[in-house]
Amino acid sequence: MATTCKIEFENNPRKVVYAGQLLKGTVRLHLTKAKRVRSLYIRIHGRAYVHWVDGTSDNRKVRVFTGNEDYFSERTNFVGGYTGEVRLSPGTYSYTFQCLLPPNLPTSLETEYGYIRYTARVVLDVPTWSDKSFAVPFTVIKMVDLNNFPRLRQPVEVEKNDTFFICCILCCCSSRPMQIVARVPVGGYTPGQFINLEINVNNHSGQSISGFNIHLIKRIKFFIHADSVRQKHLTYVLAKQYVDYSNEEVTTRVDIRLPSVPPTDLSASNIIKFGYSIRITACVSCCYNDPVLEVPITIGTYPLQDNVPPLNVPTLHPHSIQVNAVADPITPLLPSNNVVLQQPTNRTNYSTLSYPSTSNAPLSYPDSEDPPTYEEAMQLSEAADNEFRPVYPCEEAMQLSEAADNEFRPVYPVFKRSTSYSSGNSIH
Questions:
Q1: Which of the residues 38, 112, 229, 333 has the least number of beta carbons within 10 Å of its own beta carbon?
Q2: Which helix (H) or strand (E) holds 380?
């Protein structure tokens, strides 16, 4: 019988930990025969890694780009140290460990081009043979309380004005404008909530709209190092719906339920950044380009609370949005020709937060509120729409995961509650 090792987190079977929280656990090692080791230790490690290939397998100009970033690494010795030898007799050994996670860790993420991954690895350091190790991945979540960003309570409104080039026998001219306004009641949501999207059309162009294609989009940007010009982009469709449009006098409403996805984060990691938006495409005649709008949204880990007085600020319109400078500015991931709101950086004061030890509900919530469930991340490679899904050249060269971690999928908090700004009873 081979040597076995089991790594358990204290009162935390889902292995979910928030950045800044104290991680506690137990290691149970079973040896079937005596071993001489230099040390027996556990290493808690967090890192990001990216890898992509430009070119094709039959192209001599194929280039491989990789990057990595370490966030922390903490080693705790159970037996021995860095020198000498210790003999371990056959039997079962039990050890406890704890590790205080840094407060600004990025949220766990797994993608085709890279990952942000955290592992607890027990190592038998054998001086005359290869080391024996046992690894367990776990989810780290960066706390993004949407209530810390008051402007997210304001409606987000994006306007698109299009004209169409019309030609007749004698002349060519532009049509009268078609105005499309997309609006969401607030700028921030959590997984499990519904985004109540409203679309209004003021159409004087003479061109009819048959319907709207609506996509909930996640954009990821990969860098080989901080401020690198070498970048790779992924665009995923998390949810999609087609809505018929026949009565131009009626507001069209679409309820989009957010799946289990990580919170918006454009600042914690230097090599992987991601954000979210709603893409609305108006379907007009095949002779013209379809008008497209994108509404930026912020996804957090704790929802906006009801019954909080709103700020005395105007509704966000495309021609009145002003982004205030911040100490650590970030670049939104939406195309530059769209109206974009500055995504907030997480300014939670972790020194004032009281984190309990790891448990089934990693953070405490008021008794009057339902705590979140923790659900596995949406499988993006299966859900991506063909219109947006990228093509991966030389996929056989992209070995991003160790064998022990291939089946790991992070879990994220999902809130199933209705609020004044989020309601719905079906999944689209």
A1: 229
A2: helix 380-383
